[in-house]
């Protein structure tokens, strides 16, 4: 996956975005509970983001997008679902926001990317 992202980053100047469950975190504040935080894994993830010239768009809403239980009923919460973009995206869609919505039939929260930009002009509705 990261090799594909690197190829896109190196060969293209167009705005692009990756929004999905990457099963990684950007900082230690994105995890509560469970086992010890893996700082090496986070460093590797941040390094890959830098190599691919990707920027974390941040979020609005709940801080964590995934919740699970471990042995003994220990609850773990993590921000695993993330929206990453390149600089061209930030320039062209500067009002983009990421919203963490409710969980529906999943252990992950939905994420909504709101561009707040109309790509096509809208005219009055025909009667």
Using brief descriptors, characterize the structure shown.
23% helix; 29% strand; 127 residues; alpha+beta; three-stranded antiparallel beta sheet
Summarize the structure.
This protein is of the alpha+beta class and 127 residues long.
Would you write up a description of this structure?
The chain is of the alpha+beta class. Helices cover 23% and strands 29% of the residues. It is built from 3 helices and 9 strands, in the order αββαβββββαββ. It has helices spanning 2-11, 39-51, 87-92; strands at 17-21, 31-32, 55-56, 60-61, 66-69, 75-78, 81-85, 97-103, 109-114. A 3-stranded antiparallel sheet has the order 1-7-3. Strands 2-6-5 form a 3-stranded antiparallel sheet, with no helix packed on it. The chain is globular. 14% of the residues are buried.
Helix/strand layout:
Blueprint: H1 2-11, E1 17-21, E2 31-32, H2 39-51, E3 55-56, E4 60-61, E5 66-69, E6 75-78, E7 81-85, H3 87-92, E8 97-103, E9 109-114
Parallel strand pairs: 4-8
Antiparallel strand pairs: 1-7, 2-6, 3-7, 5-6, 8-9
* Helix percent band: 10-25%
Integer average pLDDT: 87
Choose one word for the global shape.
Answer: globular
Number of strands: 9
